[in-house]
From TrEMBL:
PANTHER family: ALDEHYDE DEHYDROGENASE-RELATED
Aldehyde dehydrogenase domain boundaries: 37-494
Organism listed in the record: Pseudonocardia acidicola
Name of the molecule in the record: Aldehyde dehydrogenase family protein
PROSITE patterns per UniProt: ALDEHYDE_DEHYDR_CYS, ALDEHYDE_DEHYDR_GLU
Active-site feature positions: E268
Keywords tagged on the record: Oxidoreductase
Pfam family, one: Aldedh
Family per record: Belongs to the aldehyde dehydrogenase family.
Length: 499
């Protein structure tokens, strides 16, 4: 282990040492009911860095009870007072940015600059954005037309109650914030269940919420496996809503488990997003954008631009540039200066991606670069060099299934109608990108693409105010923006007889 990594571990030692007490219920951290632990690893070295509590159904039950008790104190606060708590969480995230970013990089593997300037800084902005909403969430007066009588009718936006937030390992702090901030702004109390592979920043976030002085039990944390802690949360009758980001398969389980108690759901699932380069685009900019679109976070991004459609007239030149730029990406430990790409989250995830690399070659695609495990000091980590496939057909598995790794599939196209049809020919519809200098084409194609977000001449842009979520099998409901806030409320119509 390099000196820089061991120094970083020393800096966050306090959090690593208390990770076994990661069940935070009613403001108090403690171990799991069964006392079991889950080891968590630095994916760049394979070294165990901490052990978190393996929460059980009993822990979930205690957390839901604490969250239920906290609803009164939380909802009695004025909207302005609730908003001040959210502003304070945003400030505390910023004050602890270095620690949070280091934890995220150690736990997930992503480069520290990404942890710092993407995950941590946007997480703070998300809390600030929803802090402002607390005083702006309002109902309407309704102009009704009754056959008899005279009424004043209005709507109230009420919180749902206790909500369960289940988040994945690719953006652990960021996605937790996407869900936690609007849930709290709308007046709900929460039970947060992070991924068993990356729970450290969620623990810190729960601590910061308590430090901000939120009433005990408004934010509860149950770490643990999906099949135990997660399953208990989705089946719990005291939970009004589940907001989930993760795999489509787990999303389907959540839909089934929600049926008996008719929980409300927001699901942000997988993707196979099309990124289209028209021949009139700024090709150098498009090449940079296409690389960032797929290789950010080692390709483990739900909206990754994994299907790159390039116009045939510029295809060969474009692919040449992509391959040489991909080959130059600096792999390394995320804490080491100069690292541009870290390891995959786990050995199992790397093997899954390697399975797709093999299937691409077997089905006749050409691997232009990458897709190998680097040698030397990176050998113990879950590294994989960035891969680019050409000669890809739309029916190949690498063009249809979510790979969730650093693998770009490039497909050639000839005209606009054809590429829109092929881009939409996917079970998913999370995001899409297009690169063109023709303003009419940009709007025309953006309107025709079946995706929850379309980026023009850029990719992966996010803002707390812009809703994010999927069409088709990419899920339903939205994170971020006003829509997420509304999704954490229910509407009541109140009729007041005036006669
Ligand atoms: O996801 P899971 P995994 C995709 C990606 C990846 C694949 C598998 O393709 O390769 O999913 O990743 C919790 N009840 N995405 O297995 O299982 C789990 O503990 C309740 C895309 O890690 O969906 C974790 O907290 N909860 C995705 C969360 O669900 C359960 C991001 C996500 O894990 C549960 C991650 C259950 N029965 C993976 N089973 C994206 N859209 O960004 C698991 N969980």
């Amino acid at each position: 282990m390099t000196a820089v990594v061991s120094e970083a571990i020393d800096e966050v030692r306090g959090v690593l040492d208390r990770a076994g007490d990661s069940i935070v219920v009613g403001g108090r951290p403690g171990p799991a009911a069964g006392g079991d632990l889950i080891e968590t690893f630095d994916p760049a070295t394979g070294d165990a860095i901490a052990s978190i509590a393996a929460g059980t159904a009993e822990d979930v039950d205690r957390a839901v009870a604490a969250a239920t008790r906290a609803l009164g104190p939380w909802q009695e606060l004025s909207p302005a007072a609730r908003g001040r708590f959210l502003y304070d969480i945003a400030s505390l995230i910023e004050e602890n940015a270095q620690e949070l970013a280091t934890l995220e990089t150690l736990d997930n593997g992503k480069p520290l600059t990404e942890s710092m300037y993407l995950d941590v800084s946007i997480a703070a902005e998300v809390f600030r954005y929803y802090a402002g909403w607390c005083t702006k969430l309002s109902g309407q007066t309704v102009p009704i037309s009754p056959p008899v009588g005279n009424f004043f009718t209005y709507t109230l936006r009420e919180p749902l109650g206790v909500v369960g937030l289940i988040v994945p390992w690719n953006f652990p702090l960021l996605i937790a914030s996407w869900k936690l901030a609007p849930a709290l702004a709308a007046g709900n109390s929460v039970v947060l269940k992070p991924s068993e592979m990356t729970s450290l920043t969620a623990l810190r976030l729960a601590e910061l919420a308590n430090e901000a002085g939120l009433p005990a039990g408004v934010v509860n944390l149950v770490t643990g496996f999906g099949q135990t802690a997660g399953q208990a949360l989705i089946e719990h009758p005291g939970v009004a809503k589940i907001s989930f980001t993760g795999s489509t398969a787990t999303g389907q389980k959540i839909v089934a488990a929600s049926a008996p108690s008719l929980k409300k759901l927001t699901l942000e699932l997988g993707g196979k997003s099309a990124n289209i380069v028209f021949p009139d685009a700024d090709l150098a900019g498009a090449a940079q954008g296409a690389l960032a679109a797929i290789f950010l976070n080692q390709g483990q991004v739900c909206c990754a631009g994994s299907r790159l459609f390039v116009h045939r007239s510029v295809h060969d030149e474009f692919v040449g540039e992509l391959a040489s730029a991909a080959g130059a990406i600096q792999l390394g430990h995320g804490l080491v200066d100069g690292t541009e790409m870290g390891p995959l989250i786990s050995g199992a995830q790397r093997e899954r991606v390697e399975g797709y690399l093999a299937s691409g070659t077997d089905e006749g695609a050409t691997l232009v670069c990458g897709g190998v495990r680097p040698n030397g000091e990176l050998t113990p980590g879950n590294f994989l060099t960035p891969a680019v496939f050409t000669d890809v057909r739309d029916d190949m598995r690498i063009a249809r299934e979510e790979i969730f790794g650093p693998v770009l599939t490039v497909l050639a196209f000839d005209d606009e109608d054809e590429v829109v049809r092929r881009a939409n020919d996917s079970e998913f519809g999370l995001a899409a990108g297009l690169w063109t200098s023709d303003v009419k084409r940009s709007h025309r194609v953006a309107h025709r693409l079946q995706a929850g977000t379309v980026w023009v001449n850029q990719y992966n842009m996010l803002d707390p105010a812009a809703p994010f979520g999927g069409y088709k099998a990419s899920g339903y409901g939205r994170d971020l923006g006003e829509e997420s806030l509304i999704g954490f409320t229910q509407t009541k119509s109140v009729w007041v007889g005036l006669d």
